[in-house]
Design a protein that fits this description.
two-stranded antiparallel ribbon; alpha/beta; binds pyridoxal-5'-phosphate; single chain; globular
Length: about 400
């Protein structure tokens, strides 16, 4: 069985992170993360959404925040719960990223912030997006949401190199993970101080047992993505609503909400776990890139339609659009390959926002048609080829399930 996901840390790494080490603390993690991704300041939060919420709270209320329709629901929730208004922009017809032409009409002098979101590690058309922002909303704060695109580059360099801020999620499905967590990177020292103060005053310290709980959670996650638990989890997920509670609640797709602990600070274990992965980040990125490029080349040769990139994708996931998603996932599972179904909603269609699917049709289409192939460091070339062969075999069996 090739799992759809593996956490980016090993059991030994998790065990080591449970041991206190002098100097390996939150402040060091924040600074190391900021240095790695080209910003002056970093702040570690319990979730990515908590970081966005804090930033928005500090910047004020009743403002318009322009963001993609096709993104993680928690981004929209953080905007709404901070007392601001999300303005949703559709993605392109051919690509899940938000094109500059769709962004432009959403912008005006009321726009307080624009969230640019390269998804699945695929770069956006940065130059044109930033040009329309300069033209229509010169005072808007520009935030790159890199939770699904750590390290994303284009020909001119890192995509967020001119941004005011960047946001990263560190939950279990991300390129680096501290089990739960998020990082906000900032340039302006005054804004950094203000957000830090807000966090330190509003967020609670973790309880004394929290470190232990996080370790147990980490261990459970590690085993959950290994056999035989993995097959069991997949079975439960497919055949019963048992796990719905957890996943639906986590993303808040039943309504605009945050988890109960969204303002409880992360533990020292999480900071240490983040630090040790950060030291290996380049290796993690290289491995993902090699896997993604092999998929891209071989799938294109086999006549599958792959997404346009700029050869600099960092592949937080390897996305593929299919006609009949559930049938493809089931057929691939029978061949021993786990596929994921991520962002299977368009944010404006979620309860609490209640737009019709027609308002952002491309985003809605992608929410119904994307799967992601296994793409995690440690996969062998043989495993990558096995996934490609299985896809070909599934298409031979049932061509109408594919595009
Ligand atoms: C994961 C994610 C976030 C933040 O997620 P949290 O679960 O709050 O840590 C933000 N944006 C995108 C695109 C994401 O994938």
């Amino acid at each position: 069985m090739i799992p759809r996901l593996r956490p980016p840390f090993g059991l030994l790494e998790l065990a080591l992170a449970a041991v206190p080490r002098p100097g390996y603390d939150e402040a060091r993690f924040e600074q190391a993360f900021a240095n790695k991704f080209g910003f002056e300041h970093g702040l570690f939060f319990p979730y990515g959404r908590s970081a966005l919420y804090a930033l928005l709270k500090v910047r004020g209320q009743d403002r318009q925040v322009v963001m993609p329709a096709y993104t993680c629901s928690v981004v929209a929730h953080a905007v709404a719960l901070s007392g601001n208004k999300p303005v949703f922009v559709d993605c392109g017809q051919e690509h899940f990223n938000m094109p500059p032409a769709a962004l432009e009409p959403a912008l005006d002098e009321q726009t307080s912030m624009v969230i640019l979101t390269p998804i699945f590690g695929y770069p956006i058309e940065r130059r044109d997006c930033e040009a329309v922002i300069k033209k229509k909303s010169p005072d808007a704060f520009v935030l790159y949401d890199l939770a699904y695109a750590f390290g994303v580059h284009d020909k001119r360099g890192p995509q967020a190199q001119e941004a005011d801020a960047a946001l990263f999620g560190l939950g279990i499905g991300k390129q680096l993970s501290t089990l739960f967590g998020g990082i906000l990177l900032l340039r302006d020292p005054e804004l950094y101080q203000a957000v830090k103060e807000f966090r330190d005053q509003t967020f609670k310290k973790p309880g004394r047992l929290a470190g232990l709980n996080k370790f147990s959670y980490g261990k459970a996650v590690y085993f959950a993505f290994r056999e035989p638990f993995l097959s069991l989890v997949d079975l439960l997920e497919r055949k019963t609503p048992l796990l719905n509670r957890f996943t639906r609640h986590y993303y808040g797709v039943d309504g605009i909400a945050m988890p109960a602990d969204f303002q409880v600070r992360p533990t020292a274990l999480q900071a240490r776990l983040g630090l040790s992965q950060l030291e290996r980040y380049d290796q993690i990125e290289t491995q993902r890139w090699a896997i993604g490029q092999r998929y891209e080349l071989k799938l294109a040769q086999a006549g599958f339609k792959v997404f346009e990139g700029q050869e600099s994708q960092t592949y937080s996931h390897f996305p593929l659009a299919v006609a009949e998603r559930d049938r493809v996932i089931a057929a691939m599972l029978d061949k021993g390959v786990g596929l994921g179904k991520l962002i299977d909603y368009s944010c404006p269609c979620l309860p609490g926002y209640d737009y019709s699917p027609d308002a952002h049709p491309h985003s809605y289409w992608f929410s119904q048609h994307l799967v992601n192939l296994p793409c995690w460091p440690g996969m062998t070339v043989a495993q990558v080829d096995q996934v490609i062969e299985a896809l070909g075999a599934c298409r031979d069996q049932s061509p109408k399930d594919f595009l």
